[in-house]
Amino acid sequence: MEYRTDVTRNSGQSNDRDRVLDATDIVDVVGDHVALRSKGREFVCLCPFHDDRNPSMYVVPVKQIFHCFVCGAGGNAIDFVMRYHGMDFLEALKFLAEKAGLELTRRERQPRSAAAGEQAAVDYSRDDLAAANRVAASFFASILKHPEHGAVARDVVERRGISADMVEAFGIGAAPARWDGLIQTIRARDLPEAHFLAAGLLKAREQGDGAYDTFRNRLIFPIFDQLGRPVAFGGRIIDPEDTPKYVNSPESILFDKGSTLFGLPQAMAGIKQKRSVIVTEGYTDVIACHQAGVTNVVATLGTALTDRHARLLRRLCDEVILLFDGDEAGQRAADRAFEVFFLEPIDVRVTTLPDGQDPDELLKQAGGREAFDAAMERARDAVAFRLDRLEHSLSGHDYESASRVRALEEELARLVELGLHDLAPLRRQALLRRLGRVSGLGEQAVLAAIPHRRRAPRGGETSGPEDLDAGGSGGSSSGRAPTVLEHMLGCLLHDPTLISENREVLDDILTRGDYGSDPAGRVAAAVKKLVGLGTPPGLSEVLGVVEEPSARELATRLALHVASITDDDRERLIRHWASCVARLAQESGVGRQDGEVSARDALVAGLARRQSAHRERGTANAPVLPRVR
What we know:
Blueprint: E1 3-4, H1 5-8, H2 15-23, H3 25-30, E2 33-36, E3 43-46, E4 55-60, E5 65-68, E6 74-76, H4 77-85, H5 89-100, H6 117-120, H7 126-145, H8 151-159, H9 164-170, E7 173-175, H10 181-188, H11 193-198, E8 202-204, E9 211-213, E10 218-224, E11 230-237, E12 246-248, H12 264-274, E13 276-280, H13 283-291, E14 297-299, H14 307-316, E15 319-323, H15 328-340, E16 347-351, H16 359-363, H17 368-377, E17 380-381, H18 382-394, H19 402-418, H20 425-439, H21 443-449, H22 484-494, H23 506-511, H24 518-532, H25 539-543, H26 549-566, H27 570-588, H28 599-617
Parallel strand pairs: 13-14, 13-15, 15-16
Antiparallel strand pairs: 1-2, 2-3, 3-4, 4-5, 5-6, 7-10, 8-9, 10-11, 11-12, 16-17
Helix pairs in contact: 4-5, 15-18, 18-20, 20-21, 22-24, 22-26, 22-27, 24-26, 27-28
């Protein structure tokens, strides 16, 4: 049973459910479907970091962590925000602080050495670029309102029928017809020009020193990320004699065309309400749709749809309607969209507007809204759209011709490359049945012609220590079962009071270099550092010390793995810890006499491990184990 977070808050469900939804930053940020796990202590929701539509990401309110057992993503609320919104650590920290109503105190930067002077000239962060974009957005908006410098731009806005409400909602502005409009503002406010250069708002002169404005005499359309922050700008010509028609901000550490959609913040409410999004191709098309009351419309930024776009939209809605031109370029765009969304568990449809019009043209005509809605209603399934084109290409060939068979084989090979074997069984069967009908060869012939998938080698996977991975999936960074040392790290992360148990083995755990992965070694180093400071090395404390994402994910995975196989039971945890200590002692040669371990000691140690493993599995009474005397 699934509950949407916005519904669950006031749904009258159990107090636990409401309390966690309000108190857990991670769940609040997810904004997707959330369901209560049977234990009542954890929530499982749809993981936004991979393509599986089944709930797999666990949020543990008590520990304030999340972990996906499918793709391995894990950490605390800061890690989630960094991955979900593409932020760096400082941005994520500020984002969460604002949500919690906390004020951050900025530390003073350390003075740089003279040798680092050259690097200092290009030292900037995402936050620096974001600040530069905010200044520019405010500047362009003020120019549009300026009695003199914005007059021509306002005439263009009026001629294009853009209302004052849309100007405000989309932050539309104007760049003055001069080379130094923005740069004068920057210098007057004593702002660092390097940040504006890095954001693409200024360009360095090819000859001599100094810089000049990138956007001049243009209508400006700010491009916002999903949080509503300006990350880039698009500038459309005001003077028809100018070229090119559009000038756009370059990609930067803040702006990635392949994961950004124009109009997304403005469309978010409409998308969530209708659980559907319409994707078109131009700024003014999006604005025209919103002005006409169709508020679930976004646009790509001069590039084809990408996998990142698909993952973003999959998190927000259940249906994507692609609005393309009816020409050959539009057909190719539709094919590309089919491939991008092939594995996504989301409905994708394709449509065009009558007479090859774009939304801006159509919606300004009498009856334009009705014609637009009708076009959306007749949108066709993307798979059917693709197969219609295939059927058309096969129509000129005889059923038994080599060219017809070759065309079908090429299509099947491409589908395998796109992940046909990974497609959900029912979707795969429906697709193959339609292919058999379109090709005229039948479903069985199509099945026989499908190329076998070449399996990638599972390099680096090794078996873990015998009987220790009683809980199922391992906790290592490579998909293998965790080693003894990694199990012991997980025990300490889960319950740092275990330091008092077998204290003599602690140094061995923290100084050994034979961990199964580099991330595990970094986790061990963090635990050692905390122990040296007298701080209990729990998971939250370790995540506050470790910086590498792979090590943070591994620490979360190991702690949750131990919690799972011991069912959060203190006695079972101590038994598991003791089993690990015994195994570590055996592997280290402790108790050897004359370089050998006696057969009896080896037997006793082996049986003890198996008994412990059966306890973890809940099969402690299994008759296969002889009593150890």
